[in-house]
Amino acid sequence: MFVLGLVIERLLLRTIVGQPIIMIVMLTLGLDVFLRGFGPGLLGTEPKQLDIGLGLAPLILGDILANRTYVVGGIIALVLIGLALLFFRTRLGTKLRAVSDDHVSSWSVGISVEHAVAISWGLAGICAVAAGTLWGAAQGVDWSLTALLFPAVAVVILGGIDSIVGALLGGLIVGILGSVIPGYVDSLGGGSTRDVVTSVVILLTILIRPYGMFGREDIERI
Amino acid sequence: MFYRLSGVHHTRYSQTRQLWPIPADRWQVGLLLALALAAPLYMSHLYLSSYMLPWLIFSAATLSLTLLMGLAGQLHFGFAAVMAIGAYTSIHLTRAGVPLEIALLGAGLMSAVIGCLFGAAALRVKGLYLVMATLAMQFLVDWVIVNVTAISGGSVATLQTPKVSFFSIPLESLNARYYLALAWTVVVTLLILNIKRTSFGRALVAVRDKDFAAAVIGVNIFKYKLLAFFTSSFLGGVTGAILAFCFYKAVTPSQFNFDVTIQLVAMALVGGLGSVIGGFLGAGFVLLVPIILLNLISGMVSGGWLDISTSLMAHIPLMLYGAMIIGFLLFEPLGLAKIYDNARKYLLVWPFRHTQS
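YS: structure for the whole thing
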């Protein structure tokens, strides 16, 4: 997946560097549409079991019965977040942060912006694969996994687009709200309130604190 | 050759400022209009109802969107929701006994007011954040429509359009519906063409290019962004109503979901942002090319030239559609309108290419 991220960056994103944001948004959406046809077209549409060898027996921690997949998923997520925090302190991480600040000034101090963007795509690919595998192990794999896009973006916007702590807290908040509120409201309406909760979170964030909980106050990123 | 400029001498300012200053362009527009008017005479029922009609209506929708995205530079990823509001408003109004002409206006106003509410977010944020705010609008409106049974009648319900007439012409026959859609498309086209050369249009372009700079030269950014949202949502709402009454003859929530939004944005982009001819070309391309290519491939499969499984076959349109969006963004970011413009400029001076500026 690291390689796939690199390839996507090299073939598609590199050619539209400097174009307006709508181009990048639409390009990635076009990619989404293409893969949504490509994947099921080759592999079939029926949901698949993803067995990552954890077993179905619950884990007993004192009084709590925990689903093994969730526990392992949580641990892996924490490890990834820790690694990300550490990574941003390395030389390469500092370069990435510089590039996200300003392309032109990074170029002028000798950072290869193309290189940095490619690496960020590759790393994002790795993290997405980890998240997708864990989610698939817990819920089964079919093409509705692409619906994860919307909550993921809500998390990033709520937390602040350049903050890892924000992503952590935002993920917790969006995840809990998205699971708890539908429990109360779904019985009243017709269901599928999860997207609505996510939408409201996005709208409120943008109206009240456009730069998110922990983001810096310059919101014209990307 | 076809566009010879020789002999075209404008002697009054009004002549140079008309919509199509070159006579050949006027002839072309007139010919296309005549072809569109005569379409029921030479087109079969199938082609008229399943290709021509959706193409016209989606062109009108793309033009309304391009007013917002191309001229005013405000990204909108909830346009299908705007159209859904228009469609549902018009259906409920006509069911309550309001004549269609007024119901269409009501649909436009409803869409415009709700669109402006969400567009108010545009006054705080730009770019990616605006995309997310309008995307949230799409999901919220979808959810409200599906879950409030007074609006949709339930998540899988279909509301049939009642029998209506437009200025005492009953909208039963295909021809009547076709001409209503054509008339609306012509109205939208003329409106957008003319907006481009009014002070309103120029203010929108100034806001698009750099909003700070626009503010410095005295353009009220707040007012014009909101006006852009209002106008575009109004047109989108009426187009949604026309889509419901002329094409689907019924509404269900799934006709206006997020995929339709992506489709509309793809039409505007593939056609060329901010261009009127691009609206028509983009809508036609996105609607028709996947169908044509699919027919081609299925013909090859049944002829034994290719061996593809049925599940792959079913997903080929989606793949083609995605590949098309990517391809256009990479190789011709200015869209089909730019390709058309290149050809036109070439023919304008053919065969004296050295005179081309």
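YS: worth flagging: DSSP finds 16 helices and four strands in chain B.
IM: good catch. Also Chain B touches chain A through 48 residues (CB under 8 Å).
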